[in-house]
Specification:
Elements lengths: L2 E5 L2 E3 L5 E8 L8 E6 L6 E6 L6 E3 L7 E6 L4 E6 L8 E7 L4 E2 L3 E5 L2
Parallel strand pairs: 2-11
Antiparallel strand pairs: 1-3, 3-8, 4-5, 4-9, 5-6, 7-8, 9-10, 9-11
């Protein structure tokens, strides 16, 4: 069955870094664009970054441009989100998704606080 399993979340101080990973299985990973979304308490889920399937072109939300980097390793069926210069407003549950297929992970909590 299809699985997307996120890891790497946690508590970090403002200005710190985290690297999220999302391991995919049960579908042809390389055939899909992969995305990271996030949802903060009381807010709607928002798109953070997308990486296309071929060539790896990327798109970022304005709020994370220059701080976050999405990447993928098709040999490992894994997508990553490197998050630098973290801010308290980055606190949220982060989800990876193969959006066009309707596949979502369970989410990983990221908390940025001193």
């Amino acid at each position: 069955q299809v699985q997307l399993v996120e890891s790497g979340g946690g508590l970090v101080q403002p200005g710190g870094s985290l690297r999220l990973s999302c391991a995919a299985s049960g579908f042809t990973f390389s055939s899909y664009a992969m995305s990271w979304y996030r949802q903060a308490p009381g807010k709607a889920r928002e798109l953070v970054a997308i990486i296309r399937r071929a060539g790896g072109s990327t798109t970022y939300a304005d709020s994370v441009k220059g701080r976050f980097t999405i990447s993928r390793d098709n040999a490992k069926n894994t997508v990553y989100l490197q998050m630098n210069s973290l801010k308290p407003e980055d606190t949220a549950v982060y989800y990876c998704a193969a959006f066009t297929a309707g596949y979502w992970g369970q989410g990983t909590q990221v908390t940025v606080s001193s």
